[in-house]
Amino acid sequence: MKITTVGKVVFRAAKQAQHLQEAGSNNPEVAERLKKIRLVDALQKAKRDWKEIKELVGISRSTYYEWKKRLETEGLRGLQPKSRKPRRLRQKVHWTPQLVERIEALRNENPTWGRGPIWFTLRKEGYRVSERTVGRILAYLERMGRIESVASFLARERRGKARRKVKRPHAIRKPKGYEAKEPGALVQVDTLQVVLEGGERVWQFTGVDLVSRYGFGSVHTRATAGLAAEFLEAVVRRSPYPIRAVQVDGGSEFMAEFEETCARLGVKLFVLPPRSPKLNGHVERMQRTYKDEFYTRPLPSRIPELQRELDAYLAYYNTRRPHMALGGLAPMEYLARLKEGGSQSRMY
């Protein structure tokens, strides 16, 4: 009789363990959820607010009540994690080869078209397809390497345009051994943009000879290659010595007509490498002198009157203003000293 009773107890315990196992009691996630529910119950009895409970337990109020309800209605089985698989799955759409080939052809004909323009074109041609499907097919074609993305195409085109070089038959880099040892051997030329007191913007073409420091200048309302060519002709005409070479940066104002004028006048044209303004340091320094000494004065805004003021300043600069690099001589005084055969020593 005792053996029989023990057998019933063992059988009931085994059956209960089977039910618990089927309910998920041996599932670590179920046990963890049950532990959190009991911990929340204890904290609520201790009259803790939900902000503190959330920080201590790590679940929100809505999650707690959802788990609690599922535990009461379904038991431990209700605490098992539910599948997140959507109830309704989108059916796979089979693309016809004709549709894929047509989209590929449209993209190759129009490399910057997105799915919108291609979709409208397909609709006009009688294809029954959604805009999203067109987008998926485009993505598939890009992954397979059959078409290029719009972003890649635009980036490649921009790089190609940046790399295209303008044909410059006369301009060259300054030869490594070229040195300016006498007046006119090299004149550095650059542009200077200035805002006058009234707010008017003017552009000045500036030139300076490396040996004599003789200065040239002209002002305009803009800086174009045609105006730069006129400035060069004025430099050659007014210079007290022959001009054999000029050096400029890569600005567009020193191309086209300017380069043609250099070739016509027999003047060598040296163009600086990109991002190297220090190589034109003499003219850069002279433009600073213009800004400090000339453009700090009250000046007229009309170009003809401003040019007369600039010519007067250049006459003073070239004939009387002491130059540190010339030992205190003005450029014309230095040229006169050279002509007389005097000392050619100077400070650089």
The gyration radius over C-alpha positions equals: 43 Å
Count of helical stretches: 13
- Helices and strands, in N-to-C order? HHHHHHHHEEEEHEHEHHH
Strands, count = 6
Placed side by side, the strands forming the largest sheet appear as 1-6-5-2-3-4
Which architecture of the largest domain does the CATH hierarchy give at level 2? 2-Layer Sandwich
CATH topology of the largest domain: Nucleotidyltransferase, domain 5
* Main beta sheet: 6 strands, mixed
Uncertain regions spanning at least 5 consecutive residues: 343-348
Q: What number of domains?
A: 3
- Helix/strand/pairing category: alpha/beta
CATH superfamily of the largest domain: Ribonuclease H-like superfamily/Ribonuclease H
Structural summary, described in words:
It contains 13 helices and 6 strands. The chain folds into 3 domains: about 80 residues, no CATH class; about 70 residues, no CATH class; about 170 residues, Nucleotidyltransferase, domain 5, CATH 3.30.420.10. The C terminus is likely disordered. A hairpin with a 5-residue loop joins strand 2 and strand 3. The longest helix is centred in the N-terminal third of the chain and has 22 residues. With about 350 residues, it is of the alpha/beta class. The termini are far apart. Helices cover about 50% and strands about 10% of the residues. Helix 9 packs parallel to helix 10.
